[in-house]
Each structure stands twice: as C-alpha cells, then as structure tokens.
Amino acid sequence: MKPPLLPRLGRKLGRIKAQGDRALLRRRFTRLGVYETPVICVGRNKTGTTTMKQVFDIYGFRTAPQAQGEDLLAQEGYTLSEPFWEWMDHWEAFQDIPFSHTRYLEQIIARWPQARYILTVREPDEWFASLFNHHLQLLGLPSDASKQSLWHGLRKASYIRPGYLFHVHTQQFDITEPTQLYDRAHYIENYHRHVRQCRDLLASVAFLEINLREETTTASVCNFLGVPTDMVKPLPHANRRR
Fold it and tell me: What pLDDT does 21 receive?
C-alpha cells in the first residue's frame, strides 16, 4: 500500500525547497569566494570529522563521498595515483581516510598547497576510547576481546573490501604484531605524532586547528572559510556519545 498522498506531497515539496535554498546559498557563497579552494580536514578519525562533514554540507560544499575515495585508494594499491587526484577535482571538501592518514599528508599538501586545511583534535584518552569502541562495534567483538581476536577480526572485516581495514589501520598506526593492536600508549603516541606532523607541514598554508568539543557554534569554522557571520549556526556534534 502506498503512503497517503498528503505526506508524500509534503516530503516532495520539502525536498524541492531544500534544493532551492541550497542553490541560493551556493550562488551567494560563490560570489564571496567561499568555494574557490578546497577545504581538507586532516584530523584523525573520531576527532570530529563526521561533524566537519555535516558543517561542510550545511554551507553548501560539494563534500566528497568518503567511501569512493577509500575504494580508489585500495584499487590503486594504497597509493595516491592520478585517478585519485582526478576524483578530488570533482569535489570541494574532504575528510577521513586518506586525508586523516599521516602517510599521505605530504603528497596531499604538495598537490594542493592552495587548499585550506582543518586539523580536528580531541583529548587523547577520549579519542582512543572512542576509536576502540567504534572498532569493537564494527567488528562485533566484546570489550574484553583478546588481541588475537581483534587481529583476526580486522583481517576478516569487509568494509570497503576484504583486507582494506586491516591494511589501512595497521599502516596508519604502525602495527606490526597483535600485541600492539589497540595498545593505548602506542596509539596515543601515534596520535600525537600525527598532530605534530600536521602542525609542521601546514605551518605555511591556510590552516585551522580546532577542538570541536570546545565549540558550540560554527563561528570559528565560518571565520576560517570566509562564511559570513550572519550564517553562523549551532554546531551539529555528530556521534556526540562516542
């Protein structure tokens, strides 16, 4: 049975209005130069990168589909090759892998020195707990899972494609054996190293470092992106409980 006509019509009109509002927003911001150069979030996953995606969407950016970028990375043998750069040319805002991966930072900055970079940061212990709990949920494992169970779970994970999550995660966190997997001290040192490298590499380009847990509105991001102050909104805070 089809849904009642009036609710369906209401939803359709709502979508048409949202599309019209977005078109008006993009026309205004295009005149102001908001979209002239890409904006790339280089913060580690679980530091507020999903919130940043929501902010990009609110302000009309054409935000790159994360899974597409990750699939291209895997297709090209975990290297940033020409198909990946061509894919980037179609979008205006980016977050998460590979942009959150320390290994690729220098290549991305060399390719896009004129881009605007946002480093999202978070209290390290809180960040590690969020990452660990997210992966337990993803792998379907309990909090007291053994290192071997975690190792085999990552190997079997089918996110993007079989073997992808294991490869990217162990490479990103310099994991060579199961005993290092989700070791708090090891991960937090890796996190600090990523932050230090971002600060060093981005010192001479357009760069914003921000802890979204300390923000209540989009004001800081708007100021960085050239979005007018009359467009400041409450910060969405995606995945707030994680």
Answer: 80
Q: Which two tokens stand for residue 1?
A: 């049975």
Residues in the chain: 242
Whether the predicted pLDDT of 241 surpasses 60? no
Q: Do 101 and 165 form a contact (C-beta atoms < 8 A)?
A: no
Q: Is the pLDDT of residue 29 over 80?
A: yes
Q: Is 159 exposed, middle or buried (0-12, 13-18, 19+ CB in 10 A)?
A: middle
Q: What are phi and psi of 86, to 5 degrees?
A: -65, -40
pLDDT in tens, 150-168: 999 999 999 999 999 999 9
Residue 239 region by backbone torsions, left for phi larger than 0, else alpha for psi between -120 and 50, else beta: left
